[in-house]
Amino acid sequence: MATLQSSISTTSRSPAVIIPSTSLTISYPTLQNLISNFQKNLAAIGITPHSPVSIALPNNLEFIVSFLATAAQRGIAAPLNPAYKQGEFEFFIDDVKSKLVVVPRGAVSAGAPAVKAARKFGVAVAEVWWDDRRGEVCLEVLEKGGLRDGANVERAQSEDVALVLHTSGTTGRPKAVPLTHRNLTKTMGNIVQTYKLTQEDKTYLVMPLFHVHGLLAGFLAPLLSGGTVIVPVKFSASEFWKDFTKFKANWYTAVPTIHQILLKSPLPAQIPPIRFIRSCSSPLSPTTFHALEETFKAPVLEAYAMTEAAHQMTSNPLPPAKRKPGTVGLGQGVEVAILDGDGNEVAQGKEGEISIKGVNVTKGYINNEKANAESFTSTGFFRTGDQGKKDEDGYVIITGRIKELINRGGEKISPIEVDNAISSHPSVGEAVSFAVDSEMYGQEVGAAVVLKSGKKVTEEGLKKYVGEKLSKFKVPTRIWFTEHMPKTATGKIQRRIVAETMLRGDKPKAKL
Q1: What distance in Å separates the CA atoms of residue 314 and residue 327, rounded to the nearest whole number?
Q2: pLDDT tens profile 22-58
Q3: What is the pLDDT of residues 273-310, one digit of tens each?
Q4: Which of 114, 168, 370, 438 is 20 to 30 A from 468, comparing alpha carbons?
């Protein structure tokens, strides 16, 4: 019976977790003890099976132990971005009906947004912290809410929901995605198999643990393999290479934005040996792909993932197998099909909706029958909402979100294709395209561009450049130049918000 706790290696001689900020090194036996002790504390304060526990913590040992102990106690972990505002916390706490909100030490006296949100719904609040003297993660309930002391210590079951995450909500209200121990451990195994992870591997975690990318690929899968996870509080380009070298990391997984930041940042005198670099969560342009491989002397493997699939669905394989820039590779432990509107598979090379089936896929959204009916076919395939096709080798090529495709007089244009063409210009740092209304064609192509520092190009010059790469009807009719692209907390450009901002004539405010 696979559960998160039972999937953590019991034989590895490597450290499980290294915390650079404190130089704390946690062995696998110590990690298991920390989880077990914290689980007993959760039981003592009244966390029972299926109790949702919202975790508003940064990447640290407290998050790791809180998350794994909640799942071990048959609770439902609901990680939240600790940088949320009060109103955002209120939405998520109310949506999952949290029984407990876990916050850092001092958050209650400081009146932190998560604490104020919990108070609005009468939800219990507990502070957690690492006690170096006692060698444990401590838990103290400061606001009791509806908890009742004295629950039993539980043993998790494979079909228990261990995790609830929300979709990004870029096209409407965020949907709650329940993921069972079985879903999660299947993905963990798929990732280990895809990248041949062993206890000799060490990964440097640059993605937040409240996001499925960081939690599954960056953290949980390495624990299954017996490898080591190096966990900084957050990504810092200035600290990356120092930590990467000091702790002898040999791979990392990130979104394209982080890869681009590393390419722009000062490099160490000698690039350390890197077994592979993984890219996921948004499209990686071929330009960035080649720059990464040339600069860091390592194979770049682009993957494709969704929260509903407990993260990974496809990936380019390790050498000597073929990896193809511009594709997201092959199905990894899942069945991938390209379907038409009626749920039938289309011919090889034809475009349709990328759809998947596998043990890692959620059985459905919480309290959203309409979305469930629309998202699953009668044969059990989950419709991703992404348009794409398979090439002659079966590698998946994503051509865009179906709802984001640009329809110019009946011609369907992939915004990703336009993004890549613009991004290949030597003066362009980032580019995102989108539909703009057209009286003649219904829609035409618009684009927003961030130039590289010190570089210049005119709108007409960029249009001419794109026109040499793409058909005339795909060339943007209008290009906005801006200093910043609105992004999610994980660094994914928010195409819809960029479009709305540009079309309003506003400039996005720079992130502080």
Answers
A1: 10
A2: 889 999 999 999 999 999 999 999 999 999 999 999 9
A3: 999 999 998 889 898 999 999 999 999 999 999 999 99
A4: 438
Structure tokens at 9: 């290696």
Same domain, 215 and 363: yes
22 and 98 fall within a common domain: yes
**111 and 251 assigned to the same domain:** no
Does residue 512 belong to any structural domain of this protein? Answer: no
Are 127 and 142 in contact, with CB atoms under 8 Å apart? Answer: yes
Q: Which two tokens stand for residue 218?
A: 């960056």
Place of tokens 């350390």: 272
Domain containing 265 equals: 183-401
Residue finishing a domain among 145, 178, 211: 178
Residues 358, 380, single domain; the answer is yes
State how beta strands 202-204 and 228-230 pair.
Answer: parallel
Would residue 511 count as lying in a domain? no
In this structure, are residues 59 and 208 in contact, taking their beta carbons and an 8 Å threshold?
yes
Is there a domain that residue 331 lies in? yes
Q: Does the CA dihedral 66-70-72-73 come out positive or negative?
A: positive
Separation CA 470–CA 484 (nearest Å):
25
* Residue 493 DSSP symbol: B
At residue 383, φ and ψ (nearest 5 deg) are -85, 120
Q: What is the DSSP letter of 77?
A: E
> How many CB atoms are closer than 10 A to CB 243?
17
CATH number at residue 20: 3.40.50.980
φ/ψ of residue 324, rounded to 5: -125, 115
Structure token pair of residue 414: 């992939």
Rg of the chain, C-alpha, whole Å: 23
| Domain count for the chain | 3
Rounded Cα distance between 86 and 114, Å, is 6
Q: In whole angstroms, what is the distance from residue 213 CA to residue 227 CA? A: 17
Last residue in a domain, options 369, 401, 433: 401
The string of pLDDT tens digits covering residues 451-468 is 998 999 999 999 999 999
Does any domain span residue 338?
A: yes
pTM of the model: 0.86
